[in-house]
Specification:
The chain has 270 residues and is an alpha/beta fold. It contains 9 helices and 10 strands. The radius of gyration is 17 Å and the shape is globular.
Length: 270
């Protein structure tokens, strides 16, 4: 299956690359902060058999323009859907993508048919958790402008997770995330942008979200990410939780068939 539509959408003073696959109720996929829209490759055909699936590269990622100026990521989602003429949609986001969709659901509740978060925490959420062992090296890599080193360290932190060695994770998955993240880090290091968060943040407002919600957790993810997901699941009234064993922060890449089944079964119940 191939996209039925693709291009650059001029929204909110930037240009976002997007693709539309299939037909049916709209389903929007929003990528993690260490990836871009390509992370959904194993989902597109499976989901497009039942839904009109929209994936896009957030500003500063993939084929979209580098981030600049003042912006809010949940408003970029809204502007893109307006550009495509979509009034309501099912929403699915991983990590940072899930966080911004929670913000979106609070600002535009009437436009949300359902919400799926994957290894996400709500904006404003924090716990006293151990820092990743790579944290100091990662900070040093960013300060030195060493995008390659930073990208590999973030693969270790997020793709491998705290309890696995690199050889325990399929090399193609690590390489794919590295390539996507390297481009995003280079954009970040070369540009200036003022990303605005939701005020007040979502962390204490989740009980007002009425949309049916699925919360997917990787059991090998880091402590803070797991805690953030559990906070979402326990505070949104219509939320259900699924734990995917043997996966860290990118369960859709590690076990795509299982991931797709969880999402499609959830959507089929609505």
């Amino acid at each position: 299956m191939q996209p039925t539509q693709s291009g650059m959408a001029k929204v909110n003073g930037t240009q976002l690359y997007y693709e539309v696959w299939g037909a049916g109720p709209p389903l929007v996929l929003v990528h993690a902060g260490i990836a871009d829209g390509r992370m959904w490759e194993d989902q597109m055909s499976a989901f497009a058999a039942h839904y009109q699936v929209i994936r896009f590269d957030q500003r500063g990622f993939g084929r979209s323009a580098a981030a600049s100026g003042t912006f809010a990521r949940h408003e970029d989602v809204h502007a893109l859907l307006e550009h495509l003429g979509i009034r309501q949609a099912h929403l699915l986001g991983c990590s940072m993508g899930g966080r911004q969709l929670l913000d979106y659901a609070l600002v535009y509740p009437e436009q949300v048919l359902s919400l799926t978060t994957v290894c996400s925490g709500p904006s404003g959420f924090s716990i006293d958790a151990p820092r990743p062992r790579q944290a100091d090296d990662l900070n040093a890599a960013y300060e030195a402008g060493d995008a390659e080193r930073a990208a590999w360290l973030e693969v270790e932190i997020w793709v491998d997770g705290p309890d696995r060695t690199p050889d325990q994770v399929p090399a193609p998955i690590r390489s794919a995330v590295y390539a996507m993240n390297l481009q995003a880090i280079r954009n970040e290091l070369s540009g200036e942008a003022d990303e605005q968060g939701l005020e007040p943040p979502a962390v204490d407002r989740l009980r007002t979200i009425a949309a049916p919600t699925l919360v997917i957790i990787g059991d090998l993810d880091n402590v803070a990410a797991v805690a953030g997901s559990k906070h979402i699941a326990s505070n949104i009234p219509n939320a259900r939780q699924v734990v995917m064993a043997g996966t860290a922060h990118m369960p859709n890449l590690e076990r795509p068939a299982e991931f797709n089944q969880h999402v499609l079964e959830f959507l089929a119940t609505l």
